[in-house]
Amino acid sequence: MSAYILRRLLATIPVMMVVALFVFFLLHLTPGDPAAIIAGDDASPAEIEGVRRKLGLDQPVWVQFGIYIMNLLRGDLGTSIFSNLPVTTLVMQRLEPSVVLAVSTLVVAVVFAIPMGVLAAWKVRTAVDRVVMGFSVMGFALPVFLIGYLLIYVFAIELRWLPVQGYRPLSQGVVGTARSIVLPAFALGMVYMALIARITRASMLEVLSEDYIRTAHAKGVAKPSVLLKHALKNAAVPIVTVIGIGFALLISGVVITETVFNIPGLGRLTVDAILKRDYPIIQGLIIIFAGTKVLVNLLIDISYTFFDPRIRY
Question: Tell me, what DSSP letter sits at residue 278?
Fold first, then answer.
């Protein structure tokens, strides 16, 4: 196991190098002069040259790339062009809302989707199965922003149970944070739930047709024990895999959800940076999102051996 983990950790190095290379050339592949674009249409040649010096664009490309990599190794993601604050500082200021939203969405999706998928597989070709599959199709068909606006209209405007928008930090109370994050978590979790429920159902149907499941039934093992102890455990590998794959949906969905619900997280920071063409922030966020995705995939791979003892690395 330790050798496998070491190999997987080493395999992430070339992946992150490719990401860093792409992020670095993101600024250079932008149509036109990046310094002129950032400075604005009314900027004078002196102001454009000042931006170029600030970004280090007046140096050779290989020198710029070397400086960029060295800064990354030190944990320096650069400095915002417009706020003059380090990107790491801006990220830390916006990190809590995004982490709370991501964790809440993951909990909501897993808690609801896995039982739905198991139930649909148990009651296959019944009304319950059709309802679950109908929900899955709807979850994929409806965009996140539409689900968000529907939830706001029903639970915030009509029923007045929850706040319309905004985020309350954990320092101001867990209850307030929970009230402000419920609607965004369910809006983002609908797509995630649909994905996990469909894969859970398909994986469970495959396992339930195995001989050892029929043997367990013949021995008189209770139905809940067969479903949870025998079938679900052996069906866990595809489910865990799709949870890791769906994490990419979660990252992209955070940007839309935070905009709809006015949550000051990394998604809003991304949108603001794109609108202002603040390239250091955009580059830093891409590195963070890519690194998070690589880390999640590593954890998913390691978890396989705990769910299925037959897997050996």
Answer: -
Comparing CA positions, the residue from 154, 155, 147, 146 lying closest to residue 179 is 155
68 Cβ neighbours under 8 A, 6+ residues apart: 20, 24
- What would the pLDDT profile of 145-188 be if each residue is shown by its tens digit? 888 888 888 888 888 888 888 888 888 888 888 888 888 888 88
Taking the C-alpha atoms of 185, 186, 187 and 192 in order, what is their torsion angle to the nearest 10 degrees? Answer: 90
263-286 average pLDDT score: 84
271 three-state secondary structure: helix
Identify the pLDDT of residue 227.
Answer: 74
Interval 41-47 mean pLDDT: 76
- Burial (CB count within 10 angstroms: exposed 0-12, middle 13-18, buried 19+), residue 136: buried
Average pLDDT in the 297-305 region? 77
Please name each of the domains of the chain with its CATH number: 17-73 (no CATH), 96-307 (1.10.3720.10)
Cα-trace Rg, the chain:
24
How far apart CA 149 and CA 115 sit, in angstroms, is 27
Instruction: Indicate whether this model's pTM tops 0.85.
Output: no
Positive/negative CA dihedral, 125, 127, 128, 129: positive
Q: Are 304 and 238 in contact (CB under 8 A)?
A: no
pLDDT at 308 over 80: no
Assess contact for 298 and 12: CB atoms under 8 A. Answer: yes
In this structure, are residues 120 and 201 in contact, taking their beta carbons and an 8 Å threshold? yes
CA distance 35 to 54: 9
